[in-house]
Amino acid sequence: MWGSLTLVNAAFLLGLLALSIPVIIHLLIRRRFKKMPFSTLRFFLDRDPKLRHRSPSNLLLLLLRLILFGLIVAAFTRPFLPVPGQPQHEEEKPRQIVLILDTTASMTMESRVGSRWHQARALAQNAVKGLSPKDSMALVLPGDPPETKVPMGAPEKVASMLDSLEAGPTTGELSMALDHAVKLLAVGNASAQKEIRIISDLQASTLGEWKSKPVPSDIKIKIMGLSEFSLANASITGIDWSGVRRLNAAVLVKNESENEVLPARKIQLFVDGILRSSQTVDLPAGGSKKAEFNLPELTTGLHGVEVKMESEDGFSLDNIFRQVVSVPSVKKVMVVEPTRSETVWKQKSYFISRALMSSPDGSPEAARFKIDTYPLEGLGIKLRSDNYDLILIPAVEKWSSDSAKELEKHLKKGGAMIVFAGPDMDINQYHSAASWMPVKLRKEEYNQDNPKYLGHYDRDFPAFSLFEKPHSGDLEMAEFTGRYLLEPVEGSRVLASYDDGVPFLVERTLGQGRVYFVNTSADATWSNWPKLKTFLPWLHALADASLGIGGTPSDHIRKPYQVSAYTDIPVPGAIAQVAKITTPGGQEMELKIGNDTRWHGVKLMETGFYPITHGEGQVIDLIAVNIARAESDMKVVNPDVLMADMKRVNEPSVALLSPTAISSEPGRREYWPWILMAALCLVMIEPLIANRT
Amino acid sequence: MNQPSTIDKSIFAIVESLAFLAESTVEGFLTGLHRSPFTGFSTEFDSYRPYIQGDGLRQVDWKVWARTDKLYVKQFEDQTNMPVWIFLDGSASMDFGKGTGNKFTRACQIAAALAYLMNRQHDAAGLVIYGGTRPVTVPPATTRDHLNDLFLALASEKITGNKDETGVLMSLLPMIRRKGISVVISDCLAPAAHLRAFLKGLRAQRQEVILFHIMSPSECDLGEYNGAFVMQDRETGEELLVDAHAYRKRYAKIVRDFREEFATLCQEEEARYHFIRTDDSLEKALLEYFSRRVEIL
After folding, report:
1. What is the pTM of this model?
2. Bridge-partner residues for B42, per DSSP?
């Protein structure tokens, strides 16, 4: 009878090593007794025979504890005997099958023998037909995250689902789907035969962490690959952008096939759904090409840019690429000109005006600022009638009280201001009239023979951080011969200093506005900087920082999203809690901001543009969604290689403490409850023997 | 007596401290007594009697002669000295306890104090230390030098260990010739039958017997022992694992029964049983001896 005794968890027999614990404790305790001379033992020996037999009782206790440990280990191994008349052989057991059916974008490919999806569906339908009524099946689709399309149940449910199921633009790692299937089987019937069947095109790029996902050895794995693994495909992989208002788009096109030259293809560029340009490219085997497009000047706001490739390859989803471009609004800038010179290049504001008229990369046609140059006289009257985002002031010798007051109002309303130093400024008048200045000037200093250099600057401040990149220019090349010795006022911040510690750039926040004092001249009187190439990007970044525009112009190109069931999207600017997102198919979904400034778990299951609206349809953001880049990859893995790479573990597929594991399974007579009961009895007896109460 | 050929100098220090302890204890004890209801003996004045030929001139009260012109001799209460034997247990089991709490050390101090008191009262104190390889004997005498010999014997004796002293004790009995008092100081761990035979023998020799049963406090109730120990018998070397904490109550009862057993034995043998702990004062032993001595007179 006992010959057929089987252990469910034989690995727990290693727990018998724990038997050494009581022995060690016993030996340790024995050694610890201290020897004490005593006048006589007659009071112990004659009256209490129990004491004399203490050692044997200790041995009894040790024996009891050893049995106790042994019983606990035995209970964990779950010994059982088969019950006659019940099915015991694997073939007789009911089967629980999880079918992983790949419905990701790559499955829509049309090969020479037909669609990959049709092949896969036919295989899946055949798999369902081969099941007996006592078997059960679940359907899992790879995704991000994987989805249980049909829970474990009758195979007919899976069959009916297959009829309506189609492959789409989704993506998902096969390893995650496998892990999901293992977890599904872990809560299933412990007595059933477990099986996972995978039907997929086995793309190498979508396998994920296949080698590290543990799969219990009692789960049977069957990988059903598709008949053709190699296919020609060209894809648009992305766009390289340059410019801000007048954009230049370099569209990247790739031939995914390593050994097939593809015929020339027409690439079309659409902005907001209107065809703007097109050109033809030819693709060598395994090679990439760039198609350059110059876009016309775009208006301020969000623009959806779509690139399409006319192609006859089997995979059309990667022939379209979408991206959103955010064109910043043109800022209104006043440049104050204190001199009356009619020769433009002799004016103090000449360099700063010219710099702001250009784009940061020097191209003159894409200016981000609308510049008005205005004389110092009548500045107060002009400011009362006109609003400006930013005012730049080269060295002003004296302030009229009217101009100074209007400039203060401009700041408090949220305007920005950049004030430059220069020769012959009336220090005392500056202090009394312009109370909004971030510094108190002390003394003018000019030394042509001993120029100063920039020493320390805040490398996180946008106007300086852009020089942290390689080949972005060296700020320390600029020489400064004149400046003021000064003291920053309370509440202001020194952002840069000369090499001897005298502040160079000081910031002060006043109301909602910001004012910056630059401790050198705006022209070449005190410095050679305006003639150097670092001056233009620095002034642009300083102007942006003063206006609260963060980042670099390239941040206006929005990163596209890929199809996913769970995406986090950052909320642009400060908006109300609730917004709506509309899918390309026209379906509306509500978005709610989480604890941070993000919309969490947004479903982006289609490719295309998703406008996000707020209030009465005001568009606050636009999302472009493409298929995952990995789906275009044509490389596939052989099923045998996948089987060999799988990480098989000896743990049982059903968790030890799951409800089905605790109950006795059909066809078995399990003994662990009785063993555990015996161990419990010993636990109760042990204190009595140990003379404990 | 195991007499060394040359006396260790440290022994003199012990003798001196023993003598000082005995003297200070006894003098203090007697001063206390004078204020107590007990009347004195031995050197206490009792009455006058007319001078008869042969009386020593020192005993004549010359002041009375000056007033009455008659010779009178002072009569004292105690005119006789009595031999007192001190039997001190020197077996290995007596070597238990630390410092003055050691049973043998305390027993020596008791013996010294008793000897000093006896000498002070003109009783002849003798000493027998038994239980060692051979007994140490100091015959009774009343001189001051003799007292010093007795102190020296107490200070020199060391526990050597012998568990069977029955034969030795019995062999000592013939040397007791006169009627007197025998004081036995022992932890009574020898077999009861042996002790009973010895007490019987002493009684046969016309001795009034006082048994001082000495024990250390930790022997009484395992006071300082906590947890499990391997106890080793001083006399036999036998070892036993004992959980002192668990056994304490039972042990204390066994010891109480043991003491009662010896009290009964002494009562049966017409001996005075007196239990004494090593942390008890010496006066307790002196008072016991003193009250017995008064009863005898």
Report:
1. 0.50
2. none
